[in-house]
Amino acid sequence: MLSREIFLHNLEVNKEDKERLEKFLKSKGLFIHNKIKSKIEAFANNDEKIKYTQIASTYRYDKRIRLILYKYISYYEEYLRSILLDNFDNNLNQVFWIKQIQEKLEVNIQLERILEDLSFRCLIDQIKKLPESIKSKLFLYQKHLNKNLNSVIVLRNAVMHNKFLLFYLGFGVCYLNKKPSGSTLRHNIYNLASFLPYDVAKSFINDIQGCQNDKNDSNDTKWDLPEQFLIDLNT
Question: pTM value?
Answer without folding.
Answer: 0.93
